[in-house]
Amino acid sequence: MSANRAKNEQFQLRLPPGLRDRIKAYAERHGRSMNTEIVRILEREFPEPWSVNGRVAELLAMVRVLRGGVSDTRIDELVTEIEDTVMGIMTGRVRGLNEDSLEGIKEIWERYSEQIEEDTQINMEMDPEEEEIYGISGSTAKYIHPNDEEPGK
Is residue 86 within 8 Å of residue 60, measured between CB atoms? Predict the structure, then answer.
């Protein structure tokens, strides 16, 4: 047995007549195995639950990227709403969290705030090309190809 199969849980499944053929046809049409197709559908229908801390961290990471982009009132409103919600969690306006979750969110907020401060400092030192790249990717990484005369060529 391969190492990969040993890690995955196996389950015997009885399918109604014709269902196997439909799954197989659909999977083949999309270049997937039947197993991959069944797992894909089950994952969509039974998603993994989120932890409060994990979800807040993911949202704040997304907000950080949005902050780096071009200013748009809708994006600015979304960023404000998410930040206000996290602030509401920390101040007790949003209720129902246990103490451990609340402490975890405060730590996440602290890291987020530090990153925003760093981003603000970086933004003050960027040239126009860096600002454009940062607005697209949230990074100032430069992919320079010395033999190219113009970017994108």
Answer: yes
